[in-house]
Structures are given as structure tokens and as C-alpha cells.
Amino acid sequence: MVPEKIYFILLITEFILAGIVFASLFFIRAPYGRHVRSGWGPRIPARYAWIAMEFPAILVIALIFVIYRETASILSLVFLGMWELHYLYRTFAYPLLMRGGDKGFPALIAFFAFIFNIINGYINGMYLFKLADPVSASWFYDPRFIIGALLFLSGLIIHVHSDHVLRTLRKPGETDYRIPDRGLHRYVSSPNYFGEIVEWTGWAVATWSLPGLVFSLFTTANLLPRARTHHAWYVAEFREYPPERKAVIPFIY
Ligand code: NDP
Fold first, then answer.
1. How far apart are the C-alpha atoms of 216 and 76, rounded to whole Å?
2. Cα–Cα distance between 145 and 123 in angstroms, integer?
3. Whose CA is nearest to atom 22 of ligand 1?
4. Which of 22, 123, 198, 203 sits 20 to 30 Å CA-CA off 84?
5. Residues with Cβ within 6 A of ligand 1?
6. 116 C-alpha to center of ligand 1: Å?
7. In Å, how far are 6, 115, 194, 210 from 83, measured between CA atoms?
8. Mean pLDDT of 110-130
9. 219: number of CA atoms within 13 Å, CB side?
10. What is the pLDDT of residue 102?
């Protein structure tokens, strides 16, 4: 099958998956972390699960870049750099820094994420480095690139900072849950998810691409219902949980 055809099929697949994931997560709690439970098959240590399932996101897009490097521009390098910055953090820094007793991560969920990262890396890489019309360096001055890159960067900062706040609620070896109250945690229960949604929305705007849009839709579809579940968990678990705090979008939801 020609790469263009594979690209198109996978693009549609990811779009459909976004709808399925969004609908399912209103009925099923993603079974890891505080929501881990039996009935989801064998589990692997969470640290290894994160590294294994996120690694294709680093690899696939980098391979596509190398394959089509002849036509690469400085702009392609910037997009590759933005993508890899996020995924190097997610694949290595985040799991290696994690704290808390490892409850295990369902291998099935890690497998789904692994496949998703292959699909998503493929469609974004193929579009940017092979299929898109060549874009000149003047794109750096286009408001879409500037706004998108700023959103991406601010989302990444919120995301990494919020992960840090959560991590430092526990001393090494501790496993319990506390109410986070620093940074954007003062406004929402899941600012780490909010940061990630902002990041990939920024990516979609900066790349002005269909795969970017589909990825940002998928991220939102995946994280909004998870944040809703986390929020309900906090409210049920802590009587003193701040009532004004929203689930994921400050002041709104
Ligand atoms: P969570 O917010 O559920 O947990 C993140 C970490 O913080 C875990 O180690 C968790 O421990 C710990 N933690 C969370 N809340 C507390 C608390 N109240 N007190 C003490 N420790 C706490 O995030 P996820 O595990 O779902 O996701 C991790 C990262 O991956 C996030 O940054 C998220 O944005 C990203 N992600 C991205 C997705 C996407 O579609 N792009 C999908 C899923 C995640 P424990 O494991 O013990 O609960």
C-alpha cells in the first residue's frame, strides 16, 4: 500500500478512535493509578509501561524525518524539536521521577497506547515531512505559527510543573494521596491534563495541519473525561476539597 493511502486510513482511524475513547471514558474509569482494579488482565510495573508505550512516539516521527531528510527544512527541525521535547519528557523523565508504590499498569492499556503512538507519530510525521506542501521560513512570522508555538510552550510548562506539584506531594516511598494546592492545582483538579490539551492545541495551530487537529481532538477526548473522573474522586475522597475548584479548564469546567 502506498504511504499516502496508509496515512489517510490512519488519519480517519485516529479520528474515529477519538470519538470511541471519549464516549467510553464516561462509562469506564481508565484502570491505572488511583483507579487501578482487577479485571484488566496482567499488569506490568508502571515505570516500564510508560517508557515502553511512549517510546514509539519518539521513534516513529524521527524515523520518518530521517527517511525524508532530503527535503527537510529548518521549519521541519523546529516541529521535530517541539514534538521530541514533549515525548522525551514523557517517555524518560516522567517515569524515572515518579513516586509512590507501583500498583502496576495493565499491559492491555499500555499496548493500546503503544499502538496509538505509532499511528499518531506516523500521521504527524508523514504529513509534516513528506505530504505537506513545502513551507518557507516566512511561516515563522505567521500569526498561526507564533500563537501555536506560544500555546505549545505554555502548555508544556503547565504540564511539567503540574506533574512536579503532584510528585512532590509524596516523599520517596509514600503512596497516599493528598490535596494539591500549588500552581494551577488551585483552580482545577487536573492541570497536568489541561497543560497537555493546551500543548497539542498549540501544535495543531502551529502546524496548521489535519493530523495536528486530529491529535488535539484525540487528546481532548481522552483527557476531559479522565479529568472529570479524577475530580469526582477528589470530591468523594476529601470532605475539605475546595468546592470552587473545577475539573480541568480553569473557571469553566
Ligand atoms: P495522574 O494525574 O493521575 O497521576 C500523575 C502522577 O501523580 C502519578 O504518579 C500519581 O500517582 C500521582 N498523583 C496524582 N494525584 C496525586 C495526589 N492527589 N496525591 C499524590 N500523588 C498523586 O496522571 P496520569 O497518570 O493519568 O498521567 C500521567 C501523565 O501522562 C499526565 O501528565 C498526563 O497529562 C499524561 N497523559 C497523557 C495522555 C494523552 O492522551 N496525551 C493520556 C494519559 C496521560 P498514582 O499513580 O499512585 O495515582
1. 19
2. 20
3. 166
4. 22
5. 33-34, 98, 100, 159, 163, 166, 169-170, 177-178, 180, 192-193, 196, 219, 222-223
6. 18
7. 21, 18, 17, 16
8. 97
9. 23
10. 82
